[in-house]
Amino acid sequence: MNRTRLWILHMAAGVVLFLVLGMHMAIMHLGGVSHLFAPYAGTADSIQNSLFRDRMPFFTVSYVLLLGVALFHGLYGFRTILFELTLKRAAERAITVVLLVVGLGLFALGTWAAVAAHGMALAGVKG
Amino acid sequence: MTVLDRRSNRLGVWGWLGGGRWGMERYAYILHRITGLAILLYLLLHIVVTSFRVEGIYLWTGNGFLHSPVFEMGEYLVFAAFAYHACNGLRLVLVELGVAVGKPTEPVFPYKTSLNVQRPLLIGMMFLALILVAMGAYAELIG
Amino acid sequence: MQRTDESMRTVTFHVSRYQPEGKRGAYVEAYDVPVHEGMTVLEGLHYIKDNLDSTLVWRYSCRMGVCGSCGMLVNGRPRLACTTQILHVAGGHLAVGPLPNFEIIRDLVPDLTSMFEKHVSIQPHILRKNEEEVNSTEGEFYQSPEQLEQYLQFAYCIKCGCCMAACPTMATDARYLGPMPLTAAQRYNADTRDDGRQERNLQTGSPAGVFRCHYGGECSRVCPKGVDPAKALQLLKRRLVLDALHLFRKKEPCRKLEGSGSGEVLPNIAAAPAHTVQCSGQS
Question: How far apart are CA A95 and CA C81, in angstroms?
């Protein structure tokens, strides 16, 4: 994929993040004002409130979306900064491989966690 | 013929930060970079930490390791960094797609450039970021 | 030229020096220069060379902001020495150094070769499929004033290198094409006579291309001609994005009009002397 396409994806990911991460931040950090998706007492990140959100398929889907888009936007942005240091071609290739491995690894971990947490939260309701 | 040595005058990473004579957009650029790197570092750790909840480990509540004023303050700074990065990023999307820079014109001294055209957008976005940061601080205080 | 003593002030020039044969590296030398109102940095340097230190070296030619030779770092900002008045930028002290992000040959003389090589790489000239059409002196390409305005601002560039010196990306990235060559690319892309945009896109959209620009805006702030490279680069990005998404309608470059055209000469305009309107074919 050429540089222009990657840059368009980077921009598009940024706009998606503005919405999805904006929602995440509004829930987590403006909870004292908004009380969005946090019906239980205490802060939005309490165990009860976390489980409440993990039960909803909407959050499982949005966590996976947020994870993928944020990892791409962040790691591609980081790669852009590193590539502005006039590195050797071999070093640039190594950075690309390392960032790809880190990104895909964390995406797999996060996706597994989001899906597993959804299952456990549902099981918690039933049991 | 002897070849005389050249002296490299490339500024290096210091050149990103620049001196004290630069304009608003330069500071916006530096802050965008710093907040981006900070949010990325947080994101990578955040994915690992929140994944532990599957094992029933909630490090950020109760007597968890991350449930301390220092880390709570740190998380608020991440929120503030996000508010800035998101608002400035939205401006950059508009500017870099050539929407908010104006049309080519005949330059007449003193020159008005695309910087002047997008300046209201920059100021508006910074104002929005400030409101978000203030709201976050208020929510943190009453929460 | 000499003024009375009352209107003169002394400004200390702190000039960055470098002699490649000296093995001393870069150092700063101070010179006290009597300055009168309206005196430019270039005149100050001449005063030093004439009266204080004949070994000081810099590059200049036209003395009036046209040739783009005397770009240098004046009080931390890239400027043309000839269009910068000392008293506009300095109180008692003035720091003069060579342009950053270039290799320095001697004292205040930067080697601009790297910039010009990048400039050449984006093919800064009219590209058309039919070469003969361009090279032939017969006929002319039609262009309306509105079409001219699409690129005229970017055509005022004098290649002084101030934008390259101010650009934060250039501070670390030796491969980045830089504001000046990319502005030249936009200048020709936006020209209705040109048909080479797709060819230039390979360069401007490459890893060394325009996406290394993050709109720090310094190029436009320092440009002594008001060329506004930052604007050119954002318009270039926009076109690259539209091209990549196949959203931009394919436009044919303007055609060449043979002969005298169909326009009518307005009344009250005298006919041009015959020898000024002769084509090369006739004689």
Answer: 42
